[in-house]
Amino acid sequence: MSRRRGCRLERPGFHVPVRNRFARVAVWRQVEAGDSGANVLARHFPRDRDPNGNRDVSSHLGTRRDWCKAMRIYDRARALAGGRRLPLVKVGIVIALLLVVGLGTVGDQGVSTDERDDALAIYWNLRLLETGQPIPNNVAYYGTVFPFVSEAVFQVRSLFENGALRSEYFTNGGSTHDLTARVEFRERILTKHILTFLFSLLAYASAAGLVGILSGANNAWLGPILLALIPRFWGETFFNPRDIPFAIMFTVGSLLGALLVGHYLRVPLEGARVGRNRTTVYSLLYGVIVGLCTGTRLAGFLLLAFVAIAHLVASIGQKARLKDLLRFSLFYGLAVGAWAATVIAIHPASWAGPVQWFIEGLGMLSRHTAWDGSNLFNGRYIPGMYTPWYYLPVWLMITTPEFIQVTALGGALVFLFTFRRLRPVQQAAAVLLVLQIAFLPGLAVLRDSTLYNGLRQFLFLLPAVAVVAASGWAWLLSAQRPRILRVSGLLLLPVLSFPVIADMVALHPYEYIYFNRTFGGLPAAYNRFETDYFGLSLREGMEWINRASGSGARVVAGRAIHSAEAFAEEGILVASLAEYAEREFARPFYYIARPHVALQQRFPECPIVHGVTRQDVPLTIVKLCE
Predict the structure, then answer these.
(1) Is 419 within 8 Å of 411 (Cβ atoms)?
(2) For residue 165, is it left (φ>0), alpha (ψ between -120 and 50) or beta?
(3) What secondary structure does DSSP assign to 488-526, as a single string?
(4) Which residues is 576 bridged to in the sheet?
């Protein structure tokens, strides 16, 4: 076989007998993003290397045996090609499936305890601009983009359906005692739930992108699947108005940060100048993205520092000099400027004094001094400011599916042992994931920050954990592994996923109260750890009262009155515990309470007439006081 036709790939030392352009691209992509950094071509040939350190296979294609090996690569590449699109198709199918399931179930959700303040954030910001009256609580330090977008969508929807804008809820100061304001509030929250879920698809797409960078595009589909199989994340993507947007934007920031570092490292040093070029535009856009992330929680600004660290680490592998890195300082300056402008623009509360506002916000939110409640942790109520250092690790271990924990550990070991062989953009992505997982939780422990409600403040960890786990799984499915191991890996994924999916179905729509089976599931958490701390099950309890009582029934709600009253039918009077204390109305009345602190121990003389349960564990209870 002395005659051979070949095309020289862009890197020296690779001559591949493939005549189809799309197949060549697919082969090259395997070379560039091969499993665990290995060269797809070179593993079929003797270990000769060219001066650049790459395996030189060009001198070994003369024999029939080696020709056949090369043609098998060609056949595999042709199977991939339609080639470059197939990984995107697989990711698209996964996200489309999540979209169908999510939109089909989003209407089952209740109203969380935080959603009243989040809805009123619009009113408070407008009032601040009109009258100068300060924004209450810590809402002044949360951005207005997501609340304003959801409010705009709700008002457009109202305009089409009712021919008018709606503001009864704001007019009533956030009270839902009036039926019209109650219905408006409920519809407003449903609209926000749909938007929150649709927005969460960015997190699934970003997880796919990060896995694609680290483990090859063909494995990218594992990212969104494993992220959706973390029930705590999936459950809160429907209703959590603050922590989920932050987790989404942080994950998007990690993906784009890795790509930005990859771009910086490809730019010739003599071309690293601010001007009308892609590098300048990318830097400005990234600053805006980080600004929007900071608008969901102020800690988002750390992404700028994380990207700089990732850039430094990835540059070490290329033996870049410090003065070469300093050439990019102007681009980082542009990103910081774009970040600052975005943050100020979306926080009206900062306009009077941006620097002072930012410092005060960081101080308050890093310690969460505004929250003075207690946590149920391992059977004891502990004030949030005195939670032990192992609070977060314990919650992560008992609420994350076991197989994801194991594969995440495997993925971390793969990165550890292959880090020096990773491409710069892969090194940047790995560093950003480590910082996303470790930095803020470590800082919270060191600062003795107030922690509460399990992982809700640290949901941004879960996409990074899912990406690392997916990378561990991708290593198992790599073409380098024995065929029996790859087949076993493909079969194990649905087998291990089935118990998690079964628990999610059993808990629906309260997937966020999931505990893994090694811990004992939700029954083992009863009276030991927080369960429905957001009060979503108040909806089911209130709907039972609607069916069991007629018009004129009276209901006392143990805190989070809006989460119950939003679903009360016309003629049913709902009062808070404070309102009941002021005007103790005559019996009979119902008492409804979520499983939080001692709320369910109120009115001990009244029998429990109904309970919202999942896996035989009571969530919301209803008492009848006669």
Answers:
(1) no
(2) beta
(3) HHHHHHHHHHHHHHHHHHHHTT-GGG---TTTTHHHHHT
(4) 557
Give the integer Cα–Cα distance in Å for 244 and 532: 17
Got the DSSP string for 229-279?
T-HHHHHHTTT-SSHHHHHHHHHHHHHHHHHHHHHHHHS-GGG--SSSSHH
Q: Point out which residues pair with 15 in neighbouring strands.
A: 8
Q: Where are the domains of the chain?
A: 7-84, 88-106+194-513, 538-625
pLDDT digits 0-9 by tens, 236-279: 999 998 899 999 999 999 999 999 999 998 887 776 788 888 99
How far apart, in Å, are the Cα atoms of 273 and each of 251, 278, 314, 423, 568?
Answer: 28, 10, 20, 24, 62
Q: For residue 613, what are the β-bridge partners?
A: 618
**pLDDT tens for residues 39-54?**
444 444 433 434 344 4
Task: Classify residue 51 as exposed, middle or buried by CB count within 10 Å of its CB (0-12, 13-18, 19+).
Answer: exposed
380: helix, strand or coil: strand
Burial of 57 (0-12, 13-18, 19+ CB in 10 A): buried
Backbone phi and psi for residue 380, each to the nearest 5 degrees, phi listed first: -125, 145
Q: Could you read off the pLDDT of 153-179 as tens digits, one per residue? A: 999 999 998 888 888 888 887 888 888
Contacts of range 578-586, beta carbons closer than 8 Å, 24 or more positions apart: 580/556, 585/554
Q: Over the chain (626 residues), what is each successive 10-residue block's mean pLDDT?
A: 37 39 45 40 40 41 47 50 71 96 95 89 89 85 86 91 86 83 92 96 97 93 97 96 94 97 85 85 96 93 96 80 77 96 94 92 73 86 88 96 96 92 93 95 86 92 97 84 83 94 97 97 95 95 92 89 93 91 86 92 95 96 95
Q: What does the pLDDT look like over 276-290, one tens digit per residue?
A: 889 999 999 999 999
- Measured at the alpha carbon of residue 518, what is the angle toward residues 453 and 610, in degrees to the nearest 5? 55
Question: Rounded CA gap, 432 and 418, in Å?
Answer: 16
The rounded distance, in Å, linking the Cα atoms of 224 and 200 is 11
**Nearest alpha carbon to residue 360 among 347, 378, 375:** 347
For the chain, what percentages of helix, strand and coil (3-state, to nearest 5) are there? 60, 5, 30
Residues 6+ apart with CB under 8 A from 141: 298, 347, 349, 357, 361, 364, 365
Kindly state the helix (H) or strand (E) to which residue 124 belongs, with its residue range. Answer: helix 115-131
Q: Any idea which residue has 């198709």 for tokens? A: 89
**Side chain identity at residue 443, one-letter code:** L
Q: What is the 3-state secondary structure (H, E, C) of 64-105?
A: HHHHHHHHHHHHHHHHHCCCCCHHHHHHHHHHHHHHHHHHHH
Question: Is residue 16 a contact partner of residue 73, using CB atoms and an 8 Å limit?
Answer: yes
